[in-house]
Amino acid sequence: MSAALDIQGLTTRFDTRGGSVTAVDNVSFSVDRGRIMGLVGESGSGKSVTGFSILGLIDEPGRVTDGRVMVEDTDLRSLSPDHLRSMRGRKVSMVFQDPMMTLNPVLRIGDQMAMAVRVHEPMSKTRALERARDALGTVGIPSPEERLAAYPHQLSGGMRQRVAIATALLHRPAVIIADEPTTALDVSIQGQILAEVRRLADETHTAIVWITHDLAVVSSLADDICVMYAGKIVERGTAEEVIGRPRHPYTRGLLDSVPGQHAPGSHLPQIPGSTPQLSHLPSGCPFRNRCPRATDVCATTPPLARFGDHTALCHHPMETT
Amino acid sequence: MTAPLLEIDTVSKRFPLKATLADKVAARLAGRRAGGAVHAVTDVSLTVDRGEVVGIVGESGCGKSTLGRIVSGIYAPTEGTVLLDGKPIATGREDHVNKLTTRVQMIHQDPFASLNPRMKVGETISEGPRTHGIVSASEVTDRTRALLEQVGLRGDYADRLPHQFSGGQRQRIAIARALAMQPDLLVLDEAVASLDVSIQAQVLNLFLDLRRDLGLTALFISHDLSVVRHVCDRVAIMYLGRVVELASAERLYADPKHPYTQALFASVPTLGTGRQDFRPIKGEIPSPIDPPPGCAFHPRCPFAGPRCRAEIPRLTEAGSGRTVACHLNDGGVGQEAAA
């Protein structure tokens, strides 16, 4: 089976007054149809910039400097701006944290969704509205026919996010990039959306990249996980492997610092220090200043340690326990 | 047995909605009264003992932040009283409120918004105690340094401005500012919600250390069930302005009784291997402007019956200091929630 999304060596730099920083550093991963890839990291790890880079949505002073982004058989980076625009929303679409980044506040839901249908596929407005209505039904919106006439402000945050997901689904894209889509929602609404997304991936065979800081969400939703730190993917594997047998000390530290698995009131294991600034990264492994396993060798570029399909960018990966 | 430090007694808070002319006309035509109110908090009673940390958990619009602000004296309750050490906090008599509210200090969610960007952090920390005469002018510098060190920062950071600090460090500064007032009660409103998980662990550890060293009493408001489990002794679950369940953290997490609490636990993704089978709560949170009659949770509740639609369930004892507001649990001690 060929991958719906295959990224090789993606690199994005931002030229700032303080010099050039590499926000996405030689990132490679692929997602097969119907699978969910969780891209996890803390603030500033480059996970969102990776998502935007895939769609070519990086603005000045940033630029994608290297890499290949294959969506099915097309390299998005080789396309002209017009051709790339015709791919966005049709072959690969994006869901943002704030659904109002997708929705136009002064247009009815039906009108803007029909517009999104017809921009890629000429058809009558009636048929486009039918397509929109069906998409709303797919994401679990009750009485979708009536919602077509509603304006975004008449819907709750959870409903708006469903509309944004339905809009992303209109053309049955091969790939959906979802950037923290449930972070702003309440847990009961998040639970509903996660259940729908899981079902959508299974039924429509869309490949989904789910960008999040929330380890609990990816561990329960994703098939595969990439952990990002300072612009690099430091660990990659199936969700079960990465959560159950983390190999990179950073992943281990992140997992340990989640409360709820420790005796109440006990000291939580913590990662010392704070996320480094991309302009002042230490040489070699970017995590070594905070790492309990670091030695002198960590000042040199860490190798990719392999454990079957499970990889970690580390001189001293964790042993299995 | 001493009296509790904080007593919240049948407190309600309604925010009136301003009716526009169009609303008034529409209401007149429909034969209703114009202008409603947001029922933010309804009939909440809660006590916090000295040295205790009580968690307030709920989703958006459940009234948890409003309750925190009432306790801090920012809002006056529409009905009910809040007593700190037996004396009213929020009576609406301004002079009285000013004196008492220094004894309750609040720590907010967003450390980027809660610190004055143009004020050196030393000034931010010392402003309150100086204004209220808690420290003398000669002690200010030393005290500020000591407070910064107490929250794990360097004493000489006092001369820096907020933009020089990360989110986690700013939250430490906000904690130092609250502690500077030597408060009897801390109100933490989603104090770790905006922090990355590795930084969140650092701030939670600091809170646990301070609690142990200073015997802090706190209301810990959060939507994050695992954080609340980690730091709280007792937990109140709120839904649409009311407390629906109140129990020790241990009992609540081991055996939630209210169908909303159960559903909330079932919707939370947990860290673990293997796909989780989500059993989300159906439907959405109703509007606090026009809450459903009877039990506010009944439109989403899998066990709702005719009585739930008509009668508001009262908080009743369900054994071992647990109280639940659900008709299913009206039978009394030890009865299982219908499954």
UniProtKB/TrEMBL annotation, chain A:
The organism's place on the tree of life at top rank: Bacteria
Subcellular location: Cell inner membrane
Family: Belongs to the ABC transporter superfamily.
UniProt keywords, alphabetically: ATP-binding, Cell membrane, Membrane, Nucleotide-binding, Transport
PANTHER family: DIPEPTIDE TRANSPORT ATP-BINDING PROTEIN DPPD, OLIGOPEPTIDE TRANSPORT ATP-BINDING PROTEIN APPD
Membrane topology: Peripheral membrane protein
Native source species: Marivita lacus
Entry-linked SMART domains: AAA
Domain ABC transporter stretches: 5-255
Record-level Gene Ontology MF annotations: ATP binding
Protein name: ABC transporter ATP-binding protein
Keyword set includes Protein transport: no
UniProt signal peptide: none
Automatic annotation (TrEMBL), chain B:
Main location: membrane
Signal peptide boundaries: none
GO molecular function: ATP binding
InterPro entries associated with the record: AAA+_ATPase, ABC_transp_ATP-bind, ABC_transporter-like_ATP-bd, ABC_transporter-like_CS, Oligopep_ABC_C, P-loop_NTPase
Membrane topology: Peripheral membrane protein
Record's subcellular location: Cell inner membrane
Keywords: ATP-binding, Nucleotide-binding, Transport
Stored SUPFAM superfamilies: P-loop containing nucleoside triphosphate hydrolases
Pfam families: ABC_tran, oligo_HPY
Ranges of residues in domain ABC transporter: 6-265
Annotated family: Belongs to the ABC transporter superfamily.
The protein's name in its UniProt record: ABC transporter ATP-binding protein
Organism of provenance: Marivita lacus
